[in-house]
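Quick start: what a row looks like.
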Amino acid sequence: MRTEHSRITDPTGEPPAGTPGLRADALHNRTRILETAREAFSTTGLDVSMAEIARRSGVGIATLYRRFPTKEALVTEAFSDQFAECVSVVDDALAHPDPWHGFCWVVEKVCAMQAVDRGFTMAFLSAFPDAAAFEKKRADAEHSFARLIQRAKDAGGLRADFAYEDLILLLLANGGVVTGSAAKAPEASRRLVAYLLEAFRADRAAPPADLPPAPSLDLEQVYCPPTA
């Protein structure tokens, strides 16, 4: 026998449209799902399943899909702030009076973001054809970074053979360091980036920059990287 309660709820645990409290409940669930997704993607990467996100969020799987119909929708929303920050960082670097230092600052900033958030870089390197706003932010960041590369070359700070694809290579290398160095990831990333920036520098007559301190690592981490 159906009760009044059963008529105003569905299997997702949310009241149907038009019932009191829907807006607050829906907003609460959405916020909780996004916070959980950001944490999971940050520590584990994008392979976390939608079912696991729902479980960690404490909501039903139907509620999750009601708020985010696809995993792509969840990923793009979870990283919208980071993408906006990335675009802002590159734009600020373009305004820097020293193009080479602006270039270095962007590389250091993006790699530092990667060192504390594995999911962000995976999202940046992934394609989301159905997420127009997200793809536009990435296109804006790529276009601005290409301009930054050319300015740094024209100013004589960046070697002439540096290509945009070298940024992807750098992120892949940094991602490997981040995965293998666990708690030491930020320190390891900073040192790797310092080495690579030295290799990218065109002015070989200038004295090399001081490297950040070497992190405490051992060979076991090369063969058996720790898991999150």
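That is the whole record. The two ends are 48 Å apart (CA to CA). The longest helix spans residues 22-44.
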